[in-house]
Amino acid sequence: MTTDKSILRRFYIIAAIFVVVFLIMGYKLFDIQVVEGQKYRTLAQETVYRNFSIEPNRGNLYDTNMNLLATSVPKYDIRFDAVTVSESNFQKHASALASELSKLLGNSKSYHLQKLKRAREIKNRYLLIAKQLDYSEYIAVREFPLFNLGPYKGGFIAEQSTVRENPLGKIGERTVGFGNVGLEGAFDEFLKGKKGRRLKQKISKGQWKPISDVNEVEPEDGYDVISTIDVNIQDVAHHALLEQLEHFEADHGSVVVMETKTGEIKAISNLGRIKGSDKYYEKLNYAVYEPHEPGSTFKLMSMAAALEDKVIDTSTVFDTEKGMVQFFDRRVYDSKRGGYGKISAAEAFEVSSNTAFAKMIYENYKDQPERFVNRLYNMGLNEKIGLKIKGEGKPHIPHPQDSNWYGTTLPWMSFGYGVSLTSLQILTFYNAIANDGLKIKPKFIKQVRDKHTLIESYSDPIIEGSICSKETALKLQDLMKRVVDNGTGSNISNSNFSMAGKTGTCQTEYWIESGRYVSSFVGYFPADEPKYSCIVVIHKPNPKIGYYGSTVAAPVFAKIAQKIFIDTPLKDEISKDAIKTNLANAKYDDYFEISQKYKTIMPDLTGYPAMDAVSILENLGLKVNLVGSGKVQRQSIKSGTKITNNQSVNLISS
Predict the structure, then answer these.
(1) Beta strand 207-210 with 600-601: parallel, antiparallel or unpaired?
(2) What does pTM read for this prediction?
(3) Of 83, 251, 465, 651, which one has the greatest count of Cβ atoms within 10 A?
C-alpha cells in the first residue's frame, strides 16, 4: 500500500524534473534571444532577404581605328508578382495589359489574360512574361497598364542582364574571343568592371523578387580596350585564307599580319573545316596554340645560326649529289629530281635545297651538335613569346642530351623536321630579321580607356634584344628577297611592290599515311623598307590539287600584301609646307582622301533589336535613320560593304 510519504516523494521528483526542464528552456531562450540573438536574426533575415550580385557591363573592344569589335547590350526579363497587386487594380487593368502584351509578344489577348488570371489564382509571385527584351522594349513594357504602377502596386519585376555582341560576325570571331579566350580573355581585367549588389526577397520555391528598382551598390562598367587589330586588314586576311582553303580542300589554316616596327598584330585569322562539310569557321586559334614542324621556313633559322657561328658564308659551296644524300640509314631528298649540282649556300636557300642544308649543318656541327642547338636557344627559339592571349603552344627544339636524339636528328633539324613552333613564334623570328635582327614582342593592345579618359597606353614597342648581328640580318634579308625574285617564291613576284620571304613544305602525320602536308609562306613587305610581316600556314591541302608552299600558301601572302597597298593604302604623314607645286598639292589631297576612305565594313544587323543596331552603328561612326522599333528587317548598306565615317544608313525594323 502506497503511503502518503512515498506519494509526496514522487511529487517532489516530478516537480524537480519540471523545474529543471523549465530552467533548461529558460536558458535556451536566453541564449537564442540574447547571447546568439544577432546570429539567428541575421540568419532569419537572410532566409527572406539576400543580396545578389549584379554583373556590370563589359567595356567595349575596339580595333586600332576605333571600329567596334565587341560590345555589351542590355537585355531584360520581365516577370509579374500576382500577389502584391490589389484586387481592384487587377480587375481594372488586367484586360488592357493583356491587350498590350498581345501586340508586343504575339498570341491572343485572351491567352495573356488567362495567364494573368491563373497566376492570380495560384498566387504566383514570379510569373515569366517575356525574356531577353532589348532596352526599347523594356521601356515600352514598363509603361503598360498595371505595370506602370510599379513593383508593389503593379507587380512589375524587371531583371537586367547583358549579352555580348560581335558586329563583325564570324570574321575574327576566335581572335575577339569569349569567356577566357581570345582578346576578351586576355584583357578581361580591364573589360570586366566591378559587380554591383541588389537586395531581393524570397517569395517561394527558390524564387527571389527584387525589393525595388534601386540597387544597393551600383555596378561599375568595365574599361574600353583599343586593340591593335585593323578590321580592314582582318577582312582581307580572312577572305584570302578562306578562298585558298576552299580551293585546296585543306583541313585548316591561319594567317597573321604584324606591323614590323611595333609588333602590333593587325590581323589574325584561324579557319578550320567543319567535319563532313566544305564550310570553314573560326574553330581554334591555331596561330597561337598549335606547334607544328615548320619545314623549309626553318632554313632561315639554320642559316642564321651558321652565319652567326661563322662556319659558312653565303658563298660557301655544297654538292647536292644528284638530289639525294644519305645519313646513316636514312636519305634526304631534294624536290628537284637530279638535284642542283654544286651550289652556294645563298643558292641553296633560294631553291630550298634539303640536301645542301643537311650537309651545311651536319658537316659543321656533327662533332659539337650542342653548339648548333645552343645557338638556336640563344635566339629564343625554345621559349614561348609570353602572350596575353591564353593557350600559347610550347616550342620544341631537340637537344643532344635528349634520350631520343639520334645521328639523323641534326641533319633533319636543318630543314625543319623534328622541331616544332607555332605560326606566331615563326613570324616573330622573321620579323626580327626584317628589323635588322632586333626582336619585337607581338602585342594585341594599344590603349585602355574609360570612355574618353586614357587609363593605360601601350604605344611603345616591346624590344627583347637582338637574335643576331645586323650583318647576319642584312645577308638574310637579301636571301629572302632573292627567294621571291628568282627562287621558290617567284610565282608571287610583283613589279608594283617588293616582297621577301621563304616557302615551306613539310610532310605531316607521316607515321599515319603519306600525302599529308603543311604548306607555308612567311616574310615581309616591302622588301627594302618592311612595314608588315606576315605568315600563312595551311594544313593538309588535297595533294591532288597541290601541296607546295609556293602554290598553296604564298598566293595568300601576295594577295594580302597587294590588298593592303591597293584597297587599304597606307597613310603617311606628309608636310604640306614641303609641297611646292599645284600638281603636287592635288596629288597629296587625292592621296589623303583615299587614305580616309575605308574605315571599316558594314556588319549584318538583320534580326538585331533596333536600338541595339543603332548603338552598334553609331559606334562605327554612321548616321542612322531608323524606321520602326522592333527587330531589323532590312538595311540600306549591304553587309561586307566598305563604309566611311558619318555615312548615312537606313534601318527598317518590324
Answers:
(1) unpaired
(2) 0.74
(3) 651
